[in-house]
Amino acid sequence: MSGKPAPSKIHGGHGQIFWFIIKTYKNGPMTQKLDQVHVSKDAKFVPNVKVSSPLGSFDATFLLYPSAALALIMFAGGTGITPMVRIIAHVVEQYHNGGLSDGVDVVLIFWNKTMEDIIWNDQFTDLSQSESDWFRFIPVLTQPAQSWKGLVGRPSMMQINAILDDYLPDRDVVTEKHALICGSNGFIKSVEDAISGEFPKNFLHAFEG
Q: Which residues contact 69 (CB under 8 A, 6 or more apart)?
């Protein structure tokens, strides 16, 4: 089994504990098995885990010395949220440690089928309220319940432009505007096609594999 590690919470303080984001599927044979493992009593049955960096090949050095007007627009589909969590946690830590100045914006657009599928919905909602000056969270559903009041639909140029007009209205004056994409191959292609005229290729990164 291979996996991607993630912080236990968005606000730093991870220590030496190793955490994973694993989405459990009702009829999924693998995730159901993992869900039943209790490390305290079943330690000998825990499989060996090969781990890659949550950021993969993404070069995040520009976050160490960000420009005065930097925007990260994150496009995540389902479990494609994993690398975004680590980057958001880094930005939170930098803000709280005084490593970032005002002017760095993060917009997370997160597509899922249903509201129940939204991983870390409460944490992202709380962060969007406590850090509203720089973090925006926009969940989008493709198979919503009738009670859903948020955005609906698959990624499209019209939808994404409308979201950015609402949540990042000054994007035309942003010095650096990076698009980060993670999800299924079909999701990544849909987003890339929708934003091809909005971001330079060297400021667009798709997390794959």
A: 103, 173, 174, 175, 176
Domain count, the chain: 2
Cα(180)–Cα(72) distance, integer angstroms: 7
The DSSP bridge partners found for residue 137 are 108
Residue whose entry in the numeric block shows the structure tokens 């209205």: 169
Closest by Cα among 124, 121, 184 to 154 = 184
198 is a domain residue: yes
User: What gap in Å lies between CA 77 and CA 65, rounded to an integer?
Assistant: 28
- 65 and 20, same structural domain? no
Domain hosting 151: range is 61-207
**Digit-coded pLDDT (tens) for 111-157:** 999 999 998 999 999 999 998 888 999 999 999 999 999 999 999 99
Q: Name the residue with tokens 């005002």.
A: 102
| CATH number, residue 110 | 3.40.50.80
Helix, strand, coil share of the chain (percent; to 5): 35, 20, 45
pLDDT-derived band at 185, boundaries 50, 70, 90? very high
Within a domain: 25: yes
**Predicted TM-score (pTM) of this structure:** 0.78
Q: What does the alpha-carbon distance between residue 159 and residue 152 come to, in Å, rounded to a whole number?
A: 9
Q: Is residue 175 included in any domain, yes or no? A: yes
Are 98 and 205 within 8 A, CB to CB? no
Give Cα 118 to chain centroid, integer Å: 11
Whether residue 128 contacts residue 150, with contact meaning beta carbons closer than 8 Å, is answered with: no
